Amino acid sequence: MSLPSHVVDALRDRLPSSRLRPDVPLAPFTTFNLGGPADWYADVRSADELAAVTRTARRHDIPFFLLGTGANVIVGDRGYRGLVVHNRARGLQVDPDTNRVRAESGAVVYPDLIERTVSAGLSGLEHYVGIPSTVGGALWQNLHFLAPPPERERTMFLEEVVHSADILTEDGERKTVGVDYFDFGYDYSILHDRDDVVLAATFQLHADRGRNRMREIMDANLQWRAERHPPLDTEPSVGSIFKKIEGVGAGRLIDECGLKGARIGGAMITHRHANIFVNVEDARAADVCALIELARGTVERETGYRLETEIDFIGEFVPPTDAEPTMVPKDPDLVTAAERAKAS
Ligand SMILES: Cc1cc2nc3c(=O)[nH]c(=O)nc-3n(C[C@H](O)[C@H](O)[C@H](O)COP(=O)(O)OP(=O)(O)OC[C@H]3O[C@@H](n4cnc5c(N)ncnc54)[C@H](O)[C@@H]3O)c2cc1C
Question: Which helix (H) or strand (E) holds 48?
Answer without folding.
Answer: helix 47-59
